[in-house]
């Protein structure tokens, strides 16, 4: 999926405003039954963000559901991004099931009731939640309310060009940030005028998949305290990562990096800089394997967990995980049909495997992960291993949605070129986040 991990395009103030407004709009929905319906019939609407080939994969699995439930018709609305989904639910449009590419809406949707609680029907129908890892379960609930279920995951790691590494004398990928930097230095080449010709690794924050959320697990960095307030300035991992990244950018040269990246292809085009060999090692998700298979068939490459900070080698093997989340609108008039479809898409092993194979995302149930029908290349297996590692991490749910991440990301994007008082800057980020949180919770 390309990419669905991207932090939702909603600022911290907008997230707070949406939370405050979310409890008003829309009409009341029909309640779940106390017992599981013996027969399902009727029409249920399903909104999702996929388009083109990926939408065809979703439709094929929906077709399977309809064959199993011949009296049910699924009205599919493809190409509906998170903003459209949120507006539709808030204004009472006919949305029964909604699929989001961002786990960041969970805290907001759970707290304001946009997605209804699934606790009752999960218990009623005996859904085996042990099929999901604790990390995956953590991004589908907020304060005890599970308002969504996971539907495939994105996992992040290191991609490396084996031909370029071997030519430089390397037989294995780096495991620490200092090893990554040393190898990248050796893999970087320059033109006669001193400009970059090929780059070992691009440390520029905000480029392709270089984000705070993806880097955080490399140093065990923490986002929020138990009370939901910001932990950014008090978590030493962030300072460590920022100082490493900033020093590396300075060593290469900010202007030189900007000049190089300005000439690189778009992330999801065939001219992706890793796919063309212009960047030897890159931070990316499992979905890149599908793009390489389609757009760069001759590329010799390997994958590995992303390197850790030098004093956190015990975390190696883990990484960042996020994914699609799917829930039932508060205004649904067909909650039982919606739940049946949602449950099929997220817990039926054949359905999950078919989705994973078609979309090239990591399945989120244990049975699907071990299914003999799951198509697994050596490069893809790395991400299955990361997803199951004890050190895999995700971003915590918050009423602010992705707002707390956006505030920190904005700071880091500026700091890498402008510098300044790092600790003071991080404390200011804390204040922005905590002030916005206070708007959602009140005094």
TrEMBL record:
Keyword set, alphabetical order: Signal, Sugar transport, Transport
Signal peptide range: 1-21
Gene Ontology cellular-component terms listed: ATP-binding cassette (ABC) transporter complex, substrate-binding subunit-containing
CDD domains for the chain: PBP2_UgpB
GO biological process assignments: maltodextrin transmembrane transport; maltose transport
GO molecular function per UniProt: maltose binding
Family: Belongs to the bacterial solute-binding protein 1 family.
Protein's recorded name: Multiple sugar transport system substrate-binding protein
Organism of origin: Leifsonia aquatica
């Amino acid at each position: 999926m390309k990419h669905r991990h991207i932090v939702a395009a909603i600022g911290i103030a907008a997230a707070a405003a949406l939370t405050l407004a979310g409890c008003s709009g829309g009409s009341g929905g029909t309640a779940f039954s106390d017992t599981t319906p013996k027969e399902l019939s009727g029409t249920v609407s399903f909104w999702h963000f996929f388009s083109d080939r990926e939408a065809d994969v979703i439709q094929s699995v929906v077709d399977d559901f309809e064959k199993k439930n011949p009296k049910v018709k699924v009205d599919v609305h493809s190409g509906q991004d998170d903003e459209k989904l949120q507006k539709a639910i808030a204004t009472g449009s006919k949305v029964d099931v909604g699929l989001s590419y961002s786990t960041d809406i969970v805290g907001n949707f759970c707290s304001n009731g946009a997605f209804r609680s699934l606790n009752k029907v999960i218990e009623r129908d005996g859904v085996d939640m042990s099929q999901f890892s604790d990390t995956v379960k953590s991004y589908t609930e907020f304060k005890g309310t599970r308002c969504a279920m996971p539907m495939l995951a994105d996992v992040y790691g290191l991609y490396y060009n084996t031909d370029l590494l071997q030519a430089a004398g390397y037989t294995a990928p780096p495991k620490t940030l200092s090893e990554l930097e040393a190898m990248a230095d050796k893999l970087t080449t320059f033109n006669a005028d001193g400009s970059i010709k090929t780059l070992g690794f691009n440390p520029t924050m905000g480029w392709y998949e270089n984000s705070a959320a993806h880097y955080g697990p490399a140093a065990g960095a923490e986002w929020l305290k138990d009370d939901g307030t910001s932990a950014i300035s008090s978590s030493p991992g962030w300072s460590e990562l920022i100082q490493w990244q900033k020093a590396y950018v300075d060593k290469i040269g900010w202007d030189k990096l900007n000049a190089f990246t300005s000439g690189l292809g778009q992330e999801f085009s065939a001219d992706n800089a890793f796919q063309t060999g212009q960047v030897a090692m890159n931070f990316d998700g499992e979905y890149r394997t599908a793009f390489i298979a389609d757009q760069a068939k001759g590329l010799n490459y390997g994958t590995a967990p992303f390197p850790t900070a030098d004093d956190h080698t015990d975390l190696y093997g883990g990484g960042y995980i996020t994914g699609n989340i799917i829930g039932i609108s508060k205004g649904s008039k067909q909650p039982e049909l919606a739940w049946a479809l949602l449950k099929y898409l997220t817990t039926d092993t054949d359905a999950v495997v078919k989705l994973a194979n078609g979309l090239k995302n990591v399945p989120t149930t244990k049975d699907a992960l071990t299914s003999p029908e799951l198509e697994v290349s050596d490069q893809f297996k790395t991400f299955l291993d990361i997803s199951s590692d004890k050190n895999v991490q995700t971003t915590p749910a918050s009423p602010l949605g992705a707002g707390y991440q956006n505030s920190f990301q904005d700071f880091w994007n500026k700091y890498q070129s402008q510098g300044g008082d790092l600790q003071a800057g991080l404390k200011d980020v804390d204040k922005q986040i905590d002030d916005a949180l206070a708007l959602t919770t009140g005094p």
